[in-house]
Amino acid sequence: MAKQPNQKESPDDEKRITLLERLRNLPLAIHRWVSGSRLRLALASTLAIIMVGSTFAIWSYLAHLAVEPINLVTLEMALAALDAQDTSKAKNLIGELQQQTANTKSLGGALFVLGAAKEFDAIKEWSVDRRQAMHLVASRYLTKARQIGIPPGRESQLLFLLGRSLVLGNQPLAGIPILEEALLNKESWTSEIHSLLADANLLLPTPDLKGALKYNKLLLTQPALDPDLQSQALITKAEILGKLGRTSQSRETLEHIQETHRKQARVRLLLGNLALLEASNMQPGSSEQTEKLATALSNLKEVQQVDQRHGELSRHAMYWIGTCYEAQGNKLKAENQYSQLRKIHGDTSAGLAATLAMADLDRDKNRPEKAFAGYRTVLQSVGDPVTYSSSLLPLKTLRKRLLRSYRTYVTRNEFEHAMKLVGLIEPVFSVVDVIELRAKTHRKWAEHKQLEGNTEAPRQAKSPVWDNRFHYRAAGRAYENVARLRFATRQFPEDLWLAAENYFLGHNYTNTIRILEEYLYYESRRRNALALLRMGQSNLALGYLSLAIEQLTDCIEMYPRDPNIFQARLECARSYLENDQANLAEQLLQTNLFGGTLDPTAAEWEDSLFTLGHLFYNQEQYHKAIRKLSEAVQRYPQAKEAMLARYLIARAFHSASVIPRKNMDSAKTESDRHKNRQLYLDYLAQALDNYLSVKRSITLGEHKDSAALNRNLLRNCYMMQGSVLFQLRRYEEARKTYANVTTLYQQEAFVLESFVQIANCWQRLNQPVKARGTIEQAKLVLDRLPADTDFKLATNLNRQGWELLLEQLGKW
Description:
Distance between the termini: 179 Å
Oligomer: single chain
Shape: elongated
Strand content: under 5%
Number of strands: 0
């Protein structure tokens, strides 16, 4: 019913009208509120943008849900694809699974699938290098999966695949315990695991032939073994027995394989190797060896005919044919065979072995440049030893061959070549091994230079001496570096000792003391007495007498039963002599000689006797000196100190003549004068005889091990012989003796003294003109001497002093 115009509105109607009016006025009110200030306007704009964006996002999400089909990927789907050997699908599913979810619980399973797929793909790979690399990648995936955790029921499969990937990736040492653990599960891979374990033991750096044979026998005992697999296992067994040297058992094993396999290239190759091995154990050049080598060659050549693919077996046969030619002594044929193999298959293991064989031949033919080019090629081809694998030239064999070449160079004293080879072999040897080889080479080099210095011509003797010290010091540095690298091992104290010994032999006494102090800190039992002895000797050489005496005394007192105390007494006596304590030195020497515990055949007894004789000589106790030195020379005529001792005996007689000469002048009676004169003449005669004896021994070439010393002694004997003859008033003989000096030593400063003595002889012979002529000759010699001549080394005057002296003598 329509409302009448005059009818009044109810309260509800009024409220409804008011609400509608407010709603109509709301936009206007909002507009007025918003436009009231800039802040309100900014807030309103921001709110509007947020509302519009949220609306759009919600709409897009709902639309996406409406059009996207639900297709979730699970780990079980990837595992099923893996079981079906569909590795591509399995890897794709894992990729989708990782995009679909970030659940870490499935990470171990995903890694297992990726590793297993990589392992399956590696088996199908034709390239040897790629196959090995893929096995290594698979082993890393599987190792990580094992650490994180994999789905239940897959543990046995993981162990088998991980062990196989490690072995085929050339990491047999890590793969063997994994495969042995896999054997405990008694799964269906038992035969393959036994085969892999046999191969793994053969691939070890030091092949475990007995371990390989054990697993090979287990493989052969498997029931219902495939005939082809059984034949291959028998061939592997025969190869192992051959490597063990059991050639007859190896041949018996080959007789049990199937007839169809007996003519296989692998069998022919094995028969050739067995014949070659048997020939190597026979008398070289014998008819039996010749026959065996012919058999080996026949089998090896047959390999190339049977192997229709001309693959690895043919290449191996080519290498062993070259080895047969070497055994026959036909180096040219061997070289041609190796050269052909290297040119055709240089990047294979057989080509690598041929390159090494060629290098060895070049070494033996003294062609170092070609030899080192070959060694360098081989070592560069090895690359990382972790991934290196070669049944023909395993790492252990390669190392042996390289060490053999190294020892050949050292034996031939070709130390530069040996050192060059050591610098090349680091890829297949550890850093410690390389540095240790350098140390040994320097040590051998030093010993050779020392021997060379002892036999060198006099004027060239200094160079080898300094060379040998350089190499001893280099050996010391190398052994010290080895010690630092092996600090945490038992060998550390031994390395320190070797460093100290070589420093000592190289006369590097400061480093000797430094290393020995460290050695004594770490080593509490061995060589302590000897270490104190070396420290004392080093401080004595450096002139630190107090320290030397202290350390040598400690050695004597702390280790009274150690055999090194005899040398310690001797060195301590020398320290006392240097410190002007002759009485203490004599006591120590007498203890060595007469203490009753040291045998006269000992080197320390010999040195003590010579040293005591020197002590008496230096103390001007000439009669005691003559007695002790004569005893020493008589006991040890070939000792290196014997020649100097004989010279000192002559000097002792010469010096002892001074006292009767003085007594003769002061004698109060004719009887005393005659007695002293006779004693004086006897001493001079003894001195002359000994000078002549020493000179004769040196001239005839005795004691060549002291060439530099002998040269100085020869010069002194000429001068002293002339002096004795002059004292005996045998002036003509004295003049001729001095004349020999002027002829032999024209370029040395001390020859000037000989000219002066010749002039004195002419004066005694009443020949003043000849005396002045001799002085003029001396002036000419003085003028010809180099400007840098050090006169103080051999004379008591400098150049100016000699000029003045000769000028005065020329006025006679």
